[in-house]
Structure formats: structure tokens, C-alpha cells
Amino acid sequence: FAGHPTAAAPANPNFEPVTTGLLNDMWVYSSGAWTQLVPADGSPVPVARMHHTLTAVKEAGTTKLVLVGGVPKFQYSLTKQWFESNWELPASTMVNCGLNDVWSFDMSTLEWTEEVA
Questions:
Q1: Which of 28, 32, 75, 80, CA to CA, is 20 to 30 A from 58?
Q2: How far is CA 44 from the centre of its chain?
């Protein structure tokens, strides 16, 4: 689920910084092929994020994916200088970046549900 696009690695001489933001899609790999999972019409959808946890849980005969936390968007800009500095990033560039939410995705109905404590 989600994450950020990476078109090239820093070691690539043709590397260009990634500044396009986050993806908000989900894919499943089965029988040698990738298929995009599209949520059911009307289903709420969590915001795009990175650095989150996604765990599969079997419950009452169905499989649910449980999504916890993450970072909703880049809180810093990805620049060539940053990549060339061995990925060292000043702490001051990471502010107000953590999400404190939990969502579940029902694999049988293709619906997201925000879990409330």
C-alpha cells in the first residue's frame, strides 16, 4: 500500500531526484502476476503514506490487511545534495510527520475501515 515512487537509484549516473510525492495504490501478487486492488465504490480510503506497517490478519474466514501509522507526505525535499550526503538528513527537516491512525482493508469486500480505539 502506498509508498513513494523511485525511478532510479542514487548510484545511477542518470539519477534525478524524486519529487512527485506519494502513491496511494495497492497491489497483490498472485499466480505470477500483479493486480491492482481498487477499493469498493464509496469506501473511505486512508491518505497516502510511507514508513507505515501493513500486516495480514485472518479473521472469521476472511483476510484483512491492518495498516498502522506512517508519514503522510514528504516533510523535506529530496535533493541531489541530500542523496550525495549519504542520506544524512538534519533532524530539523522532519517535523510533525507521524500519523497515529489504524485502518483495516477487507480482502473479500475491498473496503477500508478506519479503526477507532
A1: 32
A2: 16
Pairing of β 62-70 and β 99-106: antiparallel
Q: Cell match 515512487: residue? A: 5
**Cell numbers of 5, please?**
515512487
C-alpha cell at 117: 480505539
pLDDT value at position 44?
Answer: 93
Q: Quick: pLDDT tens for 91-103.
A: 555 555 678 899 9
3-state secondary structure 25-80: CCEEEECCEEEECCCCCCCCCCCCCECCEEEEEEECCEEEEEEEEEECCCCCCCCH
Phi, then psi, of 53 in degrees rounded to 5: -115, 135
Neighbours of 96 (CB within 10 A): 6
